[in-house]
Fold:
Amino acid sequence: MIEIIAQSPFAEIAALLVLAAITGFVGIILRQPLIVSFIAVGLIAGPSALDLVHSDAQISLLSQLGIAVLLFLVGIKLDVKLIRSLGAVSLLTGLGQVAFTSIFGYLIGLALGLGHITSLYVAIALTFSSTIIIVKLLSDKREIDSLHGQIALGFLIVQDLVVVLAMIVLSAIGIGAASDGHGGGSVPMVLASGVAMVGLVILFVRFAADPLTEKLAHAPELLVIFAIAMAAMFAAVGDLVGLGKEVGGLLAGVALASTPYRETIAARLAPLRDFLLLFFFIALGSGLDLSLLGTHVLGAIVFSLFVLIGNPLIVLAIMGAMGYRKRTGFLAGLTVAQISEFSLIFIAMGVTIGHVQEDALGLVTMVGLVTIAASTYMITYSHQLYALLDRYLGIFERKGTPREPSEAGMHRNDNHAVIIFGLGRFGTAIGLRLQKRGIKVLGVDFNPSAIRRWRNLGLETEFGDASDPEFVSELPLPDAKWIVSTVPIHPTGLSHEDTRSTLIQLTRMSGFPGRIAVASHNARDTEELFASGADVVLEPFHDAADRAVELLCGAESEERLAIPTIESEERETT
Structure:
């Protein structure tokens, strides 16, 4: 059967898709992240098991296109103002983590008896974190737009640029060679190419982006094809000049980020991204030779613990020193608790040119398997992990946390009648209508752009996470009459955490005496939310339909929602 499949690339791809569907389904039943399931597909299909993967060129092509589309979708949602404000922390954190990992990784290698050259190779390989895996995880958790998500993205990009430059420098001095798309060239040439690409993006945004996308929007299919073409073209150019496909795809997204059609493009490309990234994880898993494992078990354990614990701690320490809260630093630090596919490529280069032995590749392969799998769970359950370690992280936080949004905490004593968590369309609509009625509202979100949008509307806000016990306890809960949660819940197959139930528990534990309303989109959630302690469950679609029927039937235009009882409560108190 396997011989028949191997004769046809189409049959091979079909078999891999069937295997991915089965493995992913089993993973969901076992409550495992899909990334782990897809890497497992690569291992099962690879040379160490079924040996299904023979169409390397086709799978690699789909994988690289998936990388370009993924980073394109990240770039299309980047906020230029946010990039400016996070530039310093991204640069310092990225460079600090690279320096820390390189120096201490080299010393650990020497202590394990690996030799100077092998220790140098392994130390450099450990500095590479997988931007692709992290961005996918944060996107699945809907945290790519959060403050820690944006900071993590910033220093991962800085790290990618350092990786590119390091490989070029090592190539020039004979220690390594550029490989797998990270083309060679002098450092000044790469820097000049990067400046040229950024300049091209600025010109495109200034003169062509809006009118071009407006014309293309008349044919939505053509708009999507144009977006994919932009992602692939910029990724190819970035690859050719030595910046890498990741940076090129990111710049393509930035080029369209200012257009009014970016949300449409992002929504249409998301399913394609997930499909193509399957092949990235298959390629990653199938490229791991399990026969090389086991020669350096002790070394693999030591290096894995170093990456899983040391890398997050250095990020946490740097961000704490710069004035960020320990929670923000911790959540951002978890994103560097693994090594990347380029780590294996880098060590393979050393094996090819004879600087290191194959057992070094086995060592780094084992570290990669352990850290990718473990960090996936660490990021997936990051909030629960933080709750366990919170009491020990105080040494990493400065008083006042000056680098968090400057208005944080300024509304703690303003006697707000309603506190709304989740400042999306539904939350904003509620906030504006309550404000028109003269009711004081405080909005809470951990998306900096949502905070900025509310402030532009003249509404008061707090930057924070609804699942952060410390933050929730510091809100002006005693004076509030209502807590309203409009935080969207997206089933992703990851942590299965319901922020709404967590918020109900945290507010009650903090002594909130008022009533709690939460948004729900299905009947099962409604029952569970009432059981969790919600006083009112808002069902936006059903409520809107009921209101529409009343208007169509000529009913009196009386407000029927529970929220207006705030006014009566306020009249009673006055």
